[in-house]
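Forum: Protein Structure Q&A
Topic: Joint prediction for protein chains with partners

I've read a bunch of threads here and the consensus seems to be that you should model interacting components together rather than docking separate models afterwards. I'd like to see that in practice. Below is the full input, 1213 residues plus whatever partners are listed. Could one of the regulars post the assembled result?
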Amino acid sequence: MPSLVSDPGESLVPFSPQVGDPVVYPLHHGLKPPFARLSISWSRGNSLRVAFFKTPAAASASSDDETGGKVLEVKLAEGGGEIDEAQRRRIAYESVPVFAHLQMRRNSADSLSRMSYGSSSYRAEWWQHVMEYSKHISSILGAPKTSSSSVVEDPKTVVKLEEEPTCLKAAWDLMEIFYVDKQARAWLPERLVDWLADYDGLLSGPDSTIHSKLLSLQKELVNLQVIEDELKYWEAMSSALAVGWLDIVVKLLRLHGSYKLDQLGNRETENGLVEAVAVLVSTMPRMRPGLAAQKPGRCYGTKPDFFKAWEKWRGQMAKLDCSAFWVQCGHRPTREGLRNLLQVMLGNTSSLASATCHWLELCISHFLYVRHFTTSLEAIHSLAQKCMQLKPPSDSQWLTGLMFGILEENTEVVLAECSRVFGPWMVTHAIELLTADNVQADFLLHEERYNLGGISIEELHRIVYAQVLSSHALTWPIAPVYLASCPKQGFGLLEILLYRQPVQHDKTLLKNLEICRLYELDNISSCLKKITGMHHWKHGKKGSGVFWLQQAQDDVRLNRIAQQLFEFVGKSVSDDSFKQWEGLIELLGSEASTAGGLEFLHKYKDFKKSLQKVQDGKASDAARQAIEYLIQLMKSPSTPERFWLPLLHDSLNLLNWRERPLMNVSETNLLLSKLQELSLARLRPGFCDSHLPPQALSSVRLALATNLGRAILE
Amino acid sequence: MQAQSVQDQTVQAQVADPPGSKSLAHQPFQDQQDQLLTPAHSSTHSSLTPSTTLNTLASSISVPQPTHSMVTRLKAARSNIEAEYRAMASATAEITWLMFLLRDIGLYLDQPPTLFCDNMSALHLSVNLVFRAWTKRIEIDYHFVREKVALGSLITQFVSSDDQEHQNFQKAAMEKTLLNLKEGSICCSWNYCGQRLALGSSDGSLSIYDSIDPTTPSSSLRLTSSWKAHEGGVEKVVWVPPEYGDAVACICNDGILSLWEETEEDTQPLTWKLCKLFESNKSQALDLQFGVCLTSLKLVVAYSDGLVKVYELLEPLELNRWQLQAEFQNVTDSTSRFGKLACLSASIAWNQQRSGSQQSSFILGFNSDLPQFNSAKVWEFDEAHQRWLPVAELALPEDKGDRVYAVAWAPNIGRPYEVVAVATCKGIAIWHLVSDSDTDGRISEEKVALLSGHDGEVWQLEWDMSGMTLASTGSDGMVRLWQSNLNGVWHEQAALESS
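Posted by a regular:
Agreed with the consensus. Here's the joint model:
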């Protein structure tokens, strides 16, 4: 198979051209090649229609399948990993208002404080908005973890199995911690501890994590009789302690057999040691502003306070470590397990390493017990690298790529990882986080690039996401919101998207027109109306056809329609068809006369009506009325030239009115001049002659001349 | 609390709607309005339990979902290629480091080391624009490799997968059968909104299929009408732009071009009737395309004798009154006349500008035995002199005689330049056209990429609606998708293979 070279001049990596597979998606259509032809056509967004045509010979040879081919629709960019389609749609819909709200704020901020852009007050305010936005999106991705709701807790429940958190939410929260949450900067390690507590379960793939360890212990807990004899019990506790899940440790410690009433007597020392460790655990100093209620640990907001408390706490621990009670403790697993817990708390690196499973867990245990004040990304990065060496991650874990992108402060990598793992939704929305407080990223993502057609990376991703949205019938209506936030190419794509919507259904059409109105896309709006009008006109719904063409202000077509109507009915006044077209014009109402052709038709209708009256009743008033209409018609610029003669011919009766001349001199002169113009026009090539008798012109002229004479006399 | 109640109503409305209804479509705007009016209530969305919404969504939407195995396979495949990239990058880093080390101790290599890689796609994939499979990270690594190659310090070479451990990955795209074609079908065409399909057959009949449920674009199709259009087989069908009603033009294999329109009168039911038969003496029509120009509809037809005819619709309401506006040959030198030539095929593509400010233009290429006719040329209408002029020739001097199989003009949603794809026997060339205001509107053309992938002839080129992705299909039976990366380098993004 030949490979996929770009321009040879641009070919960057020389290679032999005989091989190399692109990403090949197999299409299962059940047809046997060969095909005479393939035909492709893009539908909306990323869906591609492929038609396979079998060669006639092959089709007849294989009589088992009678088809001569197949038409397939192929949806590209489908499949979003862990989240199913309905869920993805829910997220897509719910994030729209949040996104739009942020964009609106940006626009208003931009217009108001263009002067102070980049100033600290602007930045601070903007950062607040992004924080709000981030919290919103996070809540859309999944409900926040609720604290224990039941009053009576099952003592055997260590890890609560709640609604499964998603990687998407985990990644979002992680980015929020690093990019948006300014308050978290001072106690970044503790934020990571919290993050891990929420999402540790997601890290377990093929390898185990502390979360999975605790889960498996919990399963066995019911069956274990003497819990303190189990190595697993002690391991689980040291693991939980290493990553700072103090409540779990305390809870597990209290399950120790020495607390049982019947054993309290003979295991007094042992119980004392367990309780001492439990107290130490629950009084561990934490460098953070606060903890959730009923969580063990003591919080210190400032470094000196924390440091003092930490030293004191370590002193207590060292004292316990050296105490003589250990010798008196007869139960070996308890003694060793407790001392191991102490080692973890003392920050013994080998104990930490053996207690943790994942590199991030190890990393976090170091934050907790060894390097409390690590807040710079560089320091975290180097620590994370070391931890990775000790505990290499399994292949292609989403977290590793994302985390290192963040720690290396490489915006491109972060975006790429988001795109690779979570898809265009994530990229589009996460860009706001990346640029919230990072001038460099802001520049990188907003720089306009010629290669992309003059748009920025941010806009590109929005357009890509909008394309994905527009591939699906249920999500396309939200694509305009994203396209509207693309200053350069968004509206261009929106116009094409709207143009490709079917117009036959009034409900959808009105919705599309509403979108046009919202974004002031007058061109495409009139185009849609035009298409609708033509559709109705051609499909027998002449009334609504005219209506929509009027809405589109399509004078050319309306004039043609007027002409057609005239041709249809203009032949004879007494025709039955008069009723038909009269109704049509009546339907349009008098206000609908904005377009020239219809204005003419309206007047023509009135004229015909009064003409009819004249024929019926021969009333002089009606005749005068008809003449008035005739003059109006002849004066109006919207009356096409080719109607002049038929109009005059129709009104020959009036011109030759027996009782008295109906027109005064000036009116007659006007008609005569029109007639003159007409006879001149007849000499020009391309003049369409009407179906009137050849002597019509001269008879009209005669009548007018007579009338003029009579009028002068009068 | 008001916002909350609005939200609740929306949910109820969703439940009340029948399955498949588009009630969801209303939601974003309503939500947005709530949001805009009452920013203080922006927490309404968190107060709406996700499960409720999810359930309502799930109950009102029934869409086939990818099987789990498909998804995992896809994931695996993607990461595999990334792994290739990353491996290349890290290997490059290792090599560089080793070379520095060797140089430090006084050893110099007289040849650059060679890096072996078994995955060509790993060499060429880059940032994903639409399919989100490739990442910028890869690109960074890729450029790291690229830089070293450019510096001449590294040569990459392909190692056959047979020489290495082989892994066979299955990948999948979501596909759905819309229609089984009857025997003898030759060509088809979708209308502007992708809901009607016109199908031409070898027995000369035209069939129209309509979506069963017009609200969903991917619903199955149903035959609504079928009639015999010609004696010979129908070779090509093209829909007339929707501003001119529902009509198709088709070319029969004896070269006759006819125009059919769907109309309904008070007295007659809905029918397709012949509007116009374009007669031509000996030559056969090869290709035709409609272009919506400022006020009128234009039709370009290419004939087998190398002539191009441009017709203009005189009446916007009637598709039977056409006027021949121009007739010329696809050569830049209009004075000399050429002998008889036999054209196998021709390809036309209009510039689909919607703004109306530009002059109407189209591109045309022939597949003939006379080299002068072949190369794709951009023709632009000169309003002042009322004639068509060739403003650009899209072929390098050495390629001018190449037979052109297909052309496609990308929709422009705001680029400062136009993008055109031309397929010849040498591959698919991507051209940028920039119209310079300095050089009195003359178009300067630049070939930015030559994409080879299809083994034989390229049958068709199609741009997606953003003009970012090009789909191509050819005699190798594959559908290939091409994109440019952030640096403007074109590459094959994916391929669809029948299995």
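Chain A has 34 helices and six strands.
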